[in-house]
Inverse folding.
């Protein structure tokens, strides 16, 4: 790395990544999964950046989870052969999946019902497929005891390969205590282990048993029967994870650097150039005990300014006020002051940017890492 | 345009632009502003696409409004010399502004207080500046009768040029009737005309008097004293504009094409691959009489399916249900069915994509237009 630039030399808004915090988050998950003797298949949907993916996987070209075929393409080009596309496959993506596989990518896909299974099997291309299991009534998937499980597997086996089962306990985001998350982790594990056992009894090898969400992954105390854990948000953490008790403010690795551009003294607002285009529209903490509006506010070095919050946004304007609605001390924040805003939801905020400005604890930019997007 | 592709040949999700609807929206605004004898300086923050900007301006290289210096760069490179950067200037963007001006761009900037004015004046570079006026207590700006107006102008005149005044009646989005919007348009006009008169009495030429928001622009009945109108959303329209009574569903020019990827029969949900990454997290209609969730649902040809709504999203999953919560007829929507989702907020939804797939009424893709993003 050549010359260092200070954050103060950037045009705002800009996405900042604190590498020290990220490495700490990665080490925490790595240690935890090693203790549980389960393999990681990190989800790249949060970071969408190859230098970061390389740090998330255990070794060069390690296995990854993706949410788009764009992510699959980028990871495969970077040497990650084992790729799970963890969103139910739309028929219009089948040609693309086959093309990736023909080029040597061991791309596995997901299906959650007999219609999708029929579309994949009809190609008779031995695509490896995981059956999506509903472990939490949250979104998609087949319930583990449902007759549809074996019916879908049989339909698949007609022209594809039943590789196993996967689930995502998205409802862990609605938990409000560590005990609830631990219980959700048990429920998530039990759902896929039950489904895998039923498949094996019916004659399917089903070697893959896959779970994943950052809260359940970190709070699971026993993953017997599970073969891999997918999680993504843990790399950066965010205010939703703080609200769930999964991490502390000091673990949040990304923030949006913005500038104070005006003072609204009558309204007790600072106006910044960090609007929803830079922060995203995500209001993920709105139903939590502490609602962080559009983000919690830090100084330029990343230290929390606990009395401030981004309480409103327009496209390129942020409105920063005191959490208690009280009188702002405008002299503390002259026009030009740099602030760093912590995200409600790291996936959504990072997605608004095309690069990370990498710092290590301080405010010197050590590197710029590109981010990709799209489908 | 060479061979046509059908929307059915695209991988989903994908952003669709109906050129017929867009041209109708553009003609409506053009006719209206001609009747009011006021010039348009269209805002490019909604479309961020040069082929669309070219249709929004009245002639080649016509004047534009931008929300980022990235938009300024792109528009200037495409021949638009007269550019207003309509967000209060952060000091760290001053070098970039001066560089654009040195290259021949007639870039005007905005300031809303004495501190910002001091930073610009200190460069002694005769940058043309508009004073931002607060017409609606909504966000930023100086109130037209405030002493700060003349103090800021005097501070500016020390090294920059007081070009005039501008305001944005963002509070028009909170109106709930045509009468309220008409009243807001009067208030917006009166605020800037009053401020301009005060500046002129004090000896500043202040030739520019600029207003703009799609609702007030379209419902204004008299813009005497105003020299230009900035508006952006009107090019596409959206569900917020439907909710305000500004347009009809049939005027919405963009939609997100997505596929049904699963059936959740117990929950009465269709699962689609149009999640918040494709639709945005914007919930702009949540406080309206009709809450459209994450978007209203159309068939592949753009015809409204009035009983359906996107009631939930994850990153790459949409949950589509009946508005009345009733039982879905799953046979109408087999896996693979294409739907088009109308956006709550066109600026936010378009920002999630890097291109427009252009259709004209039907479902044949006539062109693909690129979109830019970032700062």
């Amino acid at each position: 790395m050549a010359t260092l630039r200070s954050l103060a030399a950037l045009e705002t808004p800009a996405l900042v990544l604190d590498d020290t915090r990220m490495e700490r988050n990665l080490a925490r998950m790595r240690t935890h999964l090693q203790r549980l003797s389960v393999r990681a298949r990190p989800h790249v949907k949060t970071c969408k950046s190859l230098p970061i993916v390389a740090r998330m996987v255990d070794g060069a070209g390690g296995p990854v989870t993706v949410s788009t075929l764009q992510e699959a393409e980028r990871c495969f080009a970077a040497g990650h052969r084992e790729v799970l596309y963890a969103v139910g496959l739309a028929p219009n993506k089948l040609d693309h999946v086959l093309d990736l596989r023909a080029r040597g990518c061991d791309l596995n896909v997901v299906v959650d019902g007999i219609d999708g299974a029929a579309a994949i099997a009809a190609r008779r291309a031995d695509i490896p497929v995981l059956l999506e299991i509903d472990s939490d009534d949250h979104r998609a998937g087949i319930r583990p005891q449902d007759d549809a499980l074996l019916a879908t597997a049989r339909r698949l086996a007609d022209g594809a390969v039943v590789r196993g089962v996967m689930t995502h306990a998205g409802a862990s985001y609605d938990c409000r205590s560590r005990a609830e998350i631990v219980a959700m982790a048990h429920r998530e594990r039990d759902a896929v282990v039950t489904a895998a056992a039923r498949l094996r009894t019916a004659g399917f090898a089903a070697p893959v048993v896959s779970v994943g969400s950052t809260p359940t992954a970190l709070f699971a105390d026993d993953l017997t029967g599970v073969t891999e854990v997918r999680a993504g948000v843990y790399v950066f953490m965010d205010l939703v994870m703080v609200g769930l008790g999964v991490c502390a403010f000091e673990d949040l690795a990304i923030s949006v650097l913005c500038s104070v551009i005006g003072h609204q003294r009558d309204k007790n607002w600072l106006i910044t150039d960090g609007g929803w285009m830079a922060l995203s529209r995500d209001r993920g903490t709105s139903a939590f005990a502490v609602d962080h509006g559009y983000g919690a506010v830090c100084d330029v070095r990343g230290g929390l300014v606990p009395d401030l919050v981004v309480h409103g946004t327009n496209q390129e304007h942020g409105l920063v006020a005191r959490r208690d609605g009280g009188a702002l001390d405008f002299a503390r924040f002259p026009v030009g002051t740099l602030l760093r805003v912590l995200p409600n939801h790291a996936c959504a905020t990072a997605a608004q940017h095309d690069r990370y400005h990498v710092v290590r604890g301080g405010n010197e930019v050590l590197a710029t890492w590109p981010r990709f997007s799209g489908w």
